[in-house]
Every structure is written in structure tokens, then in C-alpha cells.
Design a protein that fits this description.
With 124 residues, the protein is mainly alpha-helical. The protein has 4 helices and no strands.
Length: 124
């Protein structure tokens, strides 16, 4: 059995893979937390879920790119992570979700923003 994988299809390693895993955790956590919002706050629910999904997808697509193209996807991922943070912060501060769960998600989103910032800054 040939276990050699061409460079183009090798799984990404290092910080990019960690960021993708954290992004997936953030997306699942956001979906779970935001399900309980009342109808008046559905725009926050929708935006937070779409933002965390955008982080996941941009990190995954950026992993398959090189140079400035890669960095651009990771810059978009960083912006989406900050957007998700803002939406979650509003509903937590408004007391519309479980405070402990909201704060736990904000810690994940903070880590995600730091990871995506590092990726977008280095272009790696």
C-alpha cells in the first residue's frame, strides 16, 4: 500500500490545523448556545452562526492556498471571528443566554481570534 501523499493533498499541520479545530469547536458551541435566543434576537443568532461557519470555511480553504491568497483567506477568518465575538458578547451582556456557557464560548472565540490573527499576520 502506498502511503505517500502528494504535497497538494497532505493534511495541514501546525497552527493552521489547531485554528481549524478551535473554529469547529466555536461553530458547534455557537450553534448550541444561540438556539435558545428569543425571536427578537434571531439576527444575532443568524450572524453569530454564519460568522463562525465562515471562520471554519475560510481556514479550510486558506489551507489549500499559498502566499497572499492564503493570507487573505485567513484575514477574512480573523474578521469573522471578531464578528462572532461581538454578537455573542451582546447576547451574554443582555442576559439572553446562560452566562457561564456564554463566557466559555467567548473564551473559545478569543483563542480563535488570536490564532487567526497569528495566521493572517504571518501568511503561513
Amino acid at each position: 500500500m502506498n502511503t505517500n501523499v502528494p504535497n497538494q493533498t497532505r493534511p495541514q499541520t501546525g497552527r493552521g490545523l489547531v485554528a481549524l479545530q478551535v473554529a469547529q469547536d466555536a461553530a458547534v458551541g455557537t450553534i448550541t448556545l444561540m438556539q435558545t435566543l428569543p425571536p427578537a434576537l434571531r439576527s444575532y443568532q443568524d450572524q453569530a452562526i454564519r460568522s463562525t461557519g465562515s471562520v471554519v470555511l475560510n481556514l479550510a480553504e486558506g489551507a489549500g492556498r499559498r502566499g497572499r491568497d492564503r493570507a487573505r483567506f485567513w484575514q477574512v477568518a480573523f474578521g469573522s471571528a471578531k464578528e462572532a465575538q461581538a454578537a455573542v458578547q451582546v447576547v451574554v451582556r443582555a442576559g439572553q443566554v446562560d452566562k457561564a456557557a456564554g463566557e466559555a464560548l467567548l473564551r473559545i472565540l478569543d483563542r480563535l481570534a488570536a490564532l487567526t490573527w497569528g495566521l493572517s499576520s504571518t501568511g503561513r
